[in-house]
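in:
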């Protein structure tokens, strides 16, 4: 009566093959990720240690966003600018041009960090949140470990020269993914092309966003540039086109021009050579499985996470998605009971398996109804 059932619910995707061996970009280290599937489409020495420079500022913003989300910080809250912060506006660094004693709102400091890449704004925000920049850097590193940035240590809030401020492009990608996934509203700051600071005691200062990809027709909406003499040029970038997002991180570009052209090249290669396939949406019924001796003859099943796969475009192989379960499943069934597996295979090899959960309760028939159904089954099959 009960037997293993296998239902093929999605078959014969035409795939493509595009060897990374035939593709390269002019950077010492780089990585490309498809945001929804999480799959890595390209990597080049992605775990090589780097000095993240101003890409560090992504984490500075994340710490502030976390506190805003928890209600412990407000965008309108104001911090007083210290001499430590002011020094970075007068020493040739990227600056928001704040002055000692200025009272600056958290929102303006965030815009000064994200859009103008102001090192002075980083210190002002760090001191306002943690008291000192050193304490803030400890919070940054703790957060990095929490989200899986295992090869990262932050020594300051801005990314200026410090041999202990280290990361990898893989970790910067992880941080960028976390930013976009957890703070979609706040992430919009990263796409703004200009910030005007109504500074104290002087004319307003307008500065453009330093991300060169925002000014190209790519669909770029972030994220952050970086530069240090020892590391050369770096960029964490993201594009969003037709419901699909890619995240790229590269470091060790020789010139500003290389940073722009090679990052665009990497993102364009990812979009044009790969397809994103939606297999299942979280908390959405996929299909019905059979039930034995229940008040319903079947019940819907679902997965608890979005399932996407990124597929190269030209490889003529098969991607299969199947559901397996021992059925019909005997009632009673409680919502969220695990009833089977969603299995994704490629070229007869299992890529991933996902538990399938019951979408609702199904009660058992009463004794008389169960007996009648069993008799009917014996007679009629």
């Amino acid at each position: 009566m009960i037997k293993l059932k296998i239902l093929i619910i999605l078959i014969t995707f035409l795939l493509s093959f595009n060897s990374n061996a035939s593709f390269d970009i002019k950077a010492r280290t780089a990585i490309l990720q498809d945001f929804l599937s999480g799959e890595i489409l390209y990597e080049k020495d992605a775990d090589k240690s780097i000095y993240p420079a101003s890409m560090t500022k992504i984490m500075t913003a994340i710490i502030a966003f976390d506190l805003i989300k928890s209600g412990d910080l407000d965008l309108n809250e104001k911090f007083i600018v210290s001499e430590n912060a002011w020094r970075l506006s007068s020493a040739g660094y990227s600056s928001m041009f704040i002055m000692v004693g200025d009272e600056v709102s958290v929102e303006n400091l965030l815009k000064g960090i994200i859009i103008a890449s102001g090192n002075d704004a980083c210190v002002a925000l760090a001191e306002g949140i943690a008291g000192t920049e050193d304490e803030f850097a400890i919070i940054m590193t703790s957060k990095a470990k929490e989200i899986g940035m295992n090869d990262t240590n932050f020594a300051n809030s801005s990314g200026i020269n410090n041999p202990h401020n280290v990361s990898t492009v893989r970790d910067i990608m992880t941080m960028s993914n976390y930013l976009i996934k957890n703070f979609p509203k706040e992430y919009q700051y990263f796409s703004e092309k200009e910030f005007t600071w109504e500074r104290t005691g002087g004319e307003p200062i307008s500065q453009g966003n330093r991300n060169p990809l925002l000014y190209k027709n790519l669909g770029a909406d972030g994220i952050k540039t970086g530069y240090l003499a020892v590391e050369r040029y770096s960029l964490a970038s993201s594009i969003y086109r037709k419901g699909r997002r890619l995240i790229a991180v590269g470091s060790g570009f020789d010139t500003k021009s290389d940073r722009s052209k090679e990052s665009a090249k990497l993102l364009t290669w990812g979009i044009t050579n790969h397809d994103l396939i939606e297999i299942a949406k979280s908390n959405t019924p996929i299909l019905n499985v059979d039930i034995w001796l229940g008040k319903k003859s079947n019940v819907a099943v679902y997965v608890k996470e979005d399932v996407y796969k990124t597929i190269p475009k030209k490889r003529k192989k098969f991607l299969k998605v199947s559901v397996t379960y021992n059925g019909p499943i005997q009632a009673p069934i409680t919502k969220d009971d695990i009833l089977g597996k969603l299995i994704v295979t490629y070229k007869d090899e299992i890529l991933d398996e996902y538990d399938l959960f019951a979408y609702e309760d199904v009660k058992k028939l009463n004794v008389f109804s169960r007996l009648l159904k069993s008799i009917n089954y014996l007679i009629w099959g």
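note: The longest helix spans residues 256-273.
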